[in-house]
Design a protein that fits this description.
- The chain is an all-alpha fold and 514 residues long.
- 69% of the residues lie in helices and 1% in strands.
- It has helices at 10-39, 86-100, 104-114, 116-140, 142-156, 163-170, 176-180, 185-203, 206-227, 240-249, 264-268, 271-300, 306-314, 317-336, 342-365, 371-384, 392-399, 404-430, 436-460, 477-487, 491-513; strands at 48-50, 63-65.
- The protein has a two-stranded antiparallel ribbon with strand order 1-2.
- Helix 15 (342-365) runs antiparallel to helix 19.
């Protein structure tokens, strides 16, 4: 760290901006998931079957829990709700993902040419405008709302892949693990969304929830415009000491132009890159399975109500972020003190995010009707996934600082397929068959994906920069900037010179008196 007067260095400020930006991103993305409960006319629910009579019982006796809704027994007119079928509700929630996955590569390309500040911040701000329009559009026509959701997915798909360009320019390799943990802010955003939306809807209405998310995002965007810059050289308030430290410790970034094209052939034929992509696939599968299927599992197998399942499902995300950040600090310490190589650190993180998580998920599959064990293994399995920020998420910047956003975009395009395939398989295995045995197969498939991806990375993964990263490197702007800084005295040097001059003056005065 560089000593200085600032309360926060520019790199620390950038971490906070990215972290809160990811929180806002997920709040805008998932606010509808909870709000839709208050937007549609409640329907009578069929009895829910649970295979376990109690959390501490090993009995497999099937019993029925009848879910009653006293509101349905009254003649109530829902003037502010929509009479959507389950199919229409599914379309509303799913329309976002029709285009979300398709713009990941585009996000990396746009950031490569126009910078992260414009793409990351601009896309989040446009999403704020879209979310403000939801109440108006939804009252106009369902299909207009579906079109708005499709647009929202396309806009927000470019956000996360765009971040790596700024990371490569600002963050030295020995600090990447800690910085990339900011990307996990989305998990905090998921928890906050359910909490904040529930409170707002309870005291106001579902429309206010969307307006609140948009206002919060707009406030964040104002801070982003003022405090975020694509490179340290562009930042008007950065200290000379910090700028010199960054330029000395980060590799130069190539500016793309017609003379410096993107080396697509080398990227698409790079073994280390595809190893990282398929390893990330397994980690994504594990994360989305626990995130999306935990409520159904605890409801159908353990017979818990919606409040309890929601609490248990959302509980791991705050400790996941804490674990991700503290483990990232440990990984950076290993690198700075030469305790492990960069490849070794990435493999250690990948082991925890995949192999260790797989062990917990196997434990979950074997927990049967013991709900205490099921909760423990689910919590541990979710939390250990936080190590992914020090594994493949940081690895894309390691492999190619110049093209890391493009790598991340391609990875997102493929790895998000796990988020779509996992619930499909769960639906096939558990449709009309909500038993411990069917869920055991679900969790074992998840553990197998995690284990295979972890072994793949442990054998062939690498944290070394690839030769094609600097294939067209002929831009030495960063080197020229560094030379200027070396010629100019830093704030620390200026202070030392002033102290030395005072000492010399005192010595001369003393000699004159003598």
């Amino acid at each position: 760290m560089i000593a200085g007067k600032e309360l926060l260095s520019c790199r620390q400020t950038l971490w906070l901006l990215v972290f809160t930006g990811c929180i806002i991103n997920y709040m805008l993305k998932f606010s509808l998931n909870l709000a839709i409960v208050a937007m549609v006319v409640p329907r009578a629910k069929s009895p829910t079957t649970s295979q376990c009579t109690s959390g501490n019982s090993s009995s497999l006796t099937t019993f029925t829990v009848t879910v009653e809704n006293p509101l349905l027994s009254q003649n109530i007119s829902y003037t502010d709700r929509f009479n959507w079928t389950e199919y229409e509700q599914g379309m509303v929630l799913g329309a976002f993902f029709w285009t979300y996955w398709a713009t990941h590569v585009l996000g990396g390309l746009l950031a490569q040419h126009y910078g992260t500040k414009l793409i990351f911040g601009g896309a989040n701000f446009i999403a704020c405008i879209i979310v403000v329009l939801i109440p108006v559009t939804i009252k106009y026509h369902l299909y207009a709302f579906l079109a708005l959701r499709v647009l929202q997915g396309a806009v927000m798909g470019v956000v996360l892949p765009s971040m790596n360009v700024m990371t490569a320019k600002w963050i030295p390799p020995t600090e990447r693990s800690k910085f990339v943990s900011a990307y996990m802010g989305g998990t905090v955003g998921t928890s906050l969304t359910y909490l904040i939306c529930a409170i707002i809807i309870h005291y106001f209405n579902w429309e206010t929830a969307f307006y609140t998310m948009s206002v919060a995002g707009t406030i964040w965007y104002c801070f982003w415009l003022y405090c975020a810059y694509d490179s340290p050289q562009q930042h008007p308030r950065i200290s000379k000491a910090e700028l010199k430290y960054i330029l000395e410790n980060t590799p130069p970034i190539v500016k793309n132009s017609k003379e410096q094209p993107i080396p697509w052939r080398h990227i698409l034929t790079s073994g280390p890159f595809w190893i990282a992509v398929f390893s990330h696939w397994g980690a994504t599968w594990g994360f989305y399975t626990l995130l999306t299927q935990s409520p159904s599992y605890f409801s159908f197998i353990h017979g818990w109500d919606i409040n309890m399942t929601g609490l248990i499902s959302g509980a791991p995300h705050i400790p996941l972020m804490i674990f991700s950040y503290t483990f990232a600090i440990f990984c950076d310490w290993l690198l700075k003190n030469n305790k492990m190589t960069r490849t070794g650190v990435r493999k250690l993180a990948m082991f925890i995010a995949t192999i260790l998580q797989a062990c917990f998920i196997v434990g979950l599959s074997l927990s049967g009707c013991h709900s205490n064990f099921a909760v423990f293994f689910m919590l541990c399995g979710t939390i250990t996934n936080g190590a992914i920020s020090s594994a493949t998420l940081a690895n894309f910047v390691d492999l190619s600082p110049n093209y890391s956003s493009i790598l991340f975009g391609i990875c997102g395009l493929i790895a998000n397929g796990a988020g779509a395939l996992s619930p499909t398989i769960v639906g096939i295995l558990t449709n009309g068959n909500q038993t411990i045995e069917s869920w055991r197969i679900v969790f074992l498939i998840t553990a197998a994906n995690l284990t295979c991806s972890g072994i793949l990375y442990l054998i062939w993964g690498t944290g070394e920069e690839q030769p094609w990263n600097n294939l067209y490197a002929n831009d030495d702007e960063q080197g020229e900037e560094l030379q200027k800084l070396k010629q100019e005295p830093t704030e620390t040097t200026e202070k030392c010179d002033t102290v030395d001059e005072k000492k010399l003056k005192k010595e001369k005065e003393a000699n004159g008196l003598k």
